[in-house]
Automatic annotation (TrEMBL):
One GO cellular component term noted in the UniProt record for this chain: ribonucleoprotein complex
Residue ranges, compositional bias (Basic and acidic residues): 37-55
GO biological process: translation
Keywords from the named record: Ribonucleoprotein, Ribosomal protein
Alphabetized InterPro entries for the sequence: Ribosomal_bS21, Ribosomal_bS21_sf
Pfam families xrefs: Ribosomal_S21
Superkingdom of this protein's organism: Bacteria
Gene: rpsU
Protein's name in the database: Small ribosomal subunit protein bS21
Family the entry assigns: Belongs to the bacterial ribosomal protein bS21 family.
GO molecular function: structural constituent of ribosome
UniProt-annotated stretches for the region Disordered: 35-70
Organism: Desulfatibacillum aliphaticivorans
Biased amino acid composition, Basic residues: 56-70
Length: 70
């Protein structure tokens, strides 16, 4: 896990908390914590990994198509 650091300017804690939450979300910590909350069966794990793979492939194909149109 990366070291996350947020600087607070002018005692603006609300803004610092929003920035920290965004950094944690982008890092994937919330997703990992949610997954570790309960046991995941091996068959469910395989299905989830397959769905994630398909999603990544579709996203990459969509990006490739949009780059080709320019």
């Amino acid at each position: 896990m990366k070291d996350l650091e947020v600087k607070v300017f002018d005692n603006d804690l609300e803004k610092a908390m929003r920035v920290l939450k965004k950094k944690i979300q982008n890092d994937g910590l919330f997703r990992r914590l949610k997954m570790k909350k309960a046991y995941e069966k091996p068959s469910e794990s395989r299905r989830r990994k397959q769905r994630e793979s398909v999603r990544r492939l579709r996203s990459a194909a969509r990006k490739a198509r949009s780059r080709g149109r320019r």
